[in-house]
Amino acid sequence: MKKIFILCAAFCAGLALMLASCKKTGSLAYLGNGTAGAVTASSSKIVLDVSKISAADTSVLFTIKSASFGYDAAITNELQFDSVGDNWAKPVSVTMGAGATTLSYTTYNFNTLAMKLGLHINAAGQVQVRLKSTVSTVTVYSDPITLTVTPFSAASSVYVPGAYQGWSPASADSLVSETSNGIYTGVINFTGSDLAFKITSAKNWASAYGQGSTSGTVSLSGGNLTAPGIGGYLLTLNTDLLTLIFIPQWSVIGDAAGGWSTDTQMYLNKTNNTWYVTMKLTSDGTKTIKFRFKNDWGTNLGAGSGTGTLSAGGSNITIPATASGGDTYTITINPTALTYTLVKQ
């Protein structure tokens, strides 16, 4: 009897020791810290082909060998991508489906990823890939693999013919999508009393977006769109959602420029990224102006420390005395260099 008791005690002690070495994850248990998995790629040198941007091809296929935590466990696997030299400071992570052992990328999606990682267009760059495997609070990483990737420019454009430029698609300003993801942006300078325009898919009238059924929407069968006013507006067209947004940019405001509740929109000089407008200013020598962004005081520019300089939130800029009916000035600002000019016409 004594012998049986000793054997039972030894068994219980061994069982307790074994359980003490296990950790719990919900109803699942695993042993130790886990052994990392591995990742391989179908190619280590990838030159992406712009002609396949719309194809459902596979530019690269990743295959993983899952990590082991010493016990059946619900493992979350992610592939992490980073540029060489970033030391995984800002990796792009893609979660794999439960039980999945492969992850494929089309040319378009992998090109988008390469540019997101900062690789240069039409130049070979290096991308590191590793497998991150997690159970509860324990994470292990595979050894990284290195791919040499050459991305291409995926930018595409739409065009904005309208009354402001004579309704000519061939010479119209454009909106650009850097990755051809259906979102096109650009500043359009609207001038004159007729603010009608359309947006064409090419430099012709074969396909044109017009007014949609509700405000802020577009349609391929709609009538003319209308800008909210003269001046430079940032347009954002989403061809998937069929929406169009107008955002005013830099403007002049002040009691010398029509009052402190009236913005006069400026135009973008796309050659040197300055903003300008020719307008009438009226002053008795004490009236002033300022510049603000998006018709909002959140970002405004006033007088800087030197002549012709600007500062964020600076004091009002005083306009010299004008004729009784006002004088015409061409006003130019450089919001980056923080400079301005007032040239009387």
TrEMBL record:
Aminoacyl-tRNA synthetase is among the record's keywords: no
Transmembrane feature ranges: none
Pfam families: SusE
Record-linked InterPro entries: SusE
The keyword Ligase is annotated on this UniProt entry: no
PROSITE patterns: PROKAR_LIPOPROTEIN (PS51257)
Signal peptide start-end: 1-18
Keywords: Signal
Top-level division of the source organism's lineage: Bacteria
Ranges for domain SusE outer membrane protein: 30-132
Protein name per Swiss-Prot or TrEMBL: SusE outer membrane protein domain-containing protein
